[in-house]
Design goal:
The protein is an alpha/beta fold. 39% of the residues lie in helices and 16% in strands. It has a ten-stranded mixed sheet with strand order 3-2-1-4-5-6-7-10-8-9, sandwiched between helices. Helix 1 runs parallel beside helix 3. The N and C termini lie far apart (48 Å). InterPro entries: Tubulin/FtsZ_GTPase_sf. This is Tubulin-like protein.
Amino acid sequence: MGMSLYHSATGAQAPHCIHAIGIGKTGAYMVEALLRTGEIEDQLEDPRARFTGLAVDIGDQDMHELREYASGFNARLTERDIPTDRHQVRTVALDVPERDDLMTSLNRWREFLKMEYPRYYWNPNYEPWLPADTEMPKAGDSIPRAVAKAIYGHYYYGEDKRLEKELDDFVASINATRLPSIVLVFFSMAGGTGSGIVVDLARHLSNVKLGRRIPVVGVAPMPFSGDEEHAGGKAALFPTMNEIDCMLDDAKNQGVMAVWGDLYKNPFTGGFFALPQEHSWQRLGSYTKTGKPAIRDALRKGVTRKFINDSFNRFIVQDNGRLLFKMLRPAGFTGAPHERNISGDRTWTLFDVAKFTHPGVEVLPGEPKSKWREVISKWIDYIPQFSGLKEGFKTDYIEAQTVAPREIWNETLQKKLEAVLGEYLLEGEDGTLNTSHDEFFDELTSYSNIIIPGVAKTDFTAFYEARDAYDAVESWDEKLMMHSWLLDLGVMLSEQSIRFDGMAGECIWGCACWVVVPHAAIRGDAPASHDVSEVQQAAIAPMLRTVVQTP
C-alpha cells in the first residue's frame, strides 16, 4: 500500500515518479541505466505510480541495449505480479531524410512556428539555415547541431508529425500518474545529435506539452579528455553552453524572450545538472596499458560512461525520487513558490562522480588498509583538478554521498574529503557541507557523488577552452553548423549582432534578428557575480525593509 501524499506530523513527502527522455547515444544509454537500477520496478508496486521512458536518436545503432532491457523489464514486472501497463518505454530511431524532403520542411518553417506561436514574427527575409547543397550525413555519423535540429523539426512539424505524437503520448502517460512527477532529459554536451535536438525538444515538452506544470530537469555529461572527435570538435561546445546558459540564466533568458516571446522561456523548470567525466575517465582509464590500442580505448571510454550513467541514476532513484527532489531545492527549483529565490547567472548544478578505487588497480584485497586509504586519499586530492571548475570558485552549499566499504572509510578520509570540498565553500557559517556514507555491492569500489549548485557558465574551465577553439575557426559556415537553438529565427547566438552595438545574436539573413543579451556576457567577458549568495542577497534586498524585528 502506498503512503499518503504528505505526512503532516513528519513532513515526509510522497514518492516522486521519475520519467525520462534520452536524446542521442548518451541519452539512450542513460534511460537504459535508469531502468537497470531496479528501484523503478520497485516503485511500480504502488498502483498510483508510473514510469515513462522515451529515447530519440538519428538511426537505431545505439538503441539495442535499451530495447533489450525494456523487453526484459516486462517479464520482471510480470514475475512480481505488477501490471505491465504501469510503464511505457519507447524508442524512436529517425531516418536521415532525403535532402529535398528536408529542404521542403525547412522552407515551410515559418508556417510551423506561426501555428505553434501566433505572436511569431513572419520574417520576409527568412531562408533555410542549411544551404541547399548540404551534404546529408549517415545515421551513426557525428551529426552537426544545425543538421540535427533540422531533422528533429522535419519529424516534429512535417511528414506525419511522428515526434509530436510521441511527445503527446509521453505526456499522456505522465498525466496518468497519480503521484508527483519529475522529468529528466538526458543528452550529451559534446555530441551534435543530443545537444542539437534538445533545445527544441525541451521547449516543446516543457513549455508546450506540459505547460510548465512539472519539473523538467536537464542532465548532460560533459566532454572529457578521452572523448571521440565530434562534429565541430571542441569548438562546438562554446555555442552549446551559450544556448543552454541563455535558457538557465534569468537575465539572459529575459533578454531572449524580450525579442522572441515567452515560448523561449527556460524549459528546464527543475534545474540542470552538468556531469563532468574526467575524474572517472582518469581513474578507470588507467587500469590497463595492454591490448590493441583501439579496442582498449573503446573499452575504457565505455566503462567510464557506464560508470557515470549508473552512478547518477543509482543516486536519483533513492528513497523513491524524494532525494532528487530535495537535492534540487538548494538550487532554488523545487521549493514552494514563496521559497523560490533566483540564482541569476548561477543556475548550473555540478554532479561530479569522483571515483577513488577500481577493482584490481593500485591496491588488491588483503593488502594493508593503510595502503587502501593512501590510494583513496590520493584520488580525493584530484577532485579540484578533475571537477572542471576553475580555481577560486565558491558556493554556499555542497552535498557529497560517499560510497565505500565500511572497513575502509574512516574519520581520516572523511576529514580529508571535507577539507578538499571545503575549499569550494563560502567562509564560516555562510557555507554548508552535507555528507553521507553508503556502501557499494562491490566492496572494492569507492567513490563520491558530489553535488555543487550555484555554478555559472564561466566557472567551467571547459567553457574557456571551447571559446578559444571556436575563435580559431575562420569559416562562418562552420560556425553556423555548431549552432542550433535560435537558427530558425535567424539568430547565431554566439556571434555579435550586426545592427545593435554590443548585443549578441548575429542575423544570418542580414536583417535585425538579435537578442537583448550583451555579447560580452556570451563571451564570458562581462562582470559576473562572485557567488550565488551574493545573487540572492541582491534579489531579496528590497524585501528586507518589510522584515519585522523581534525583541
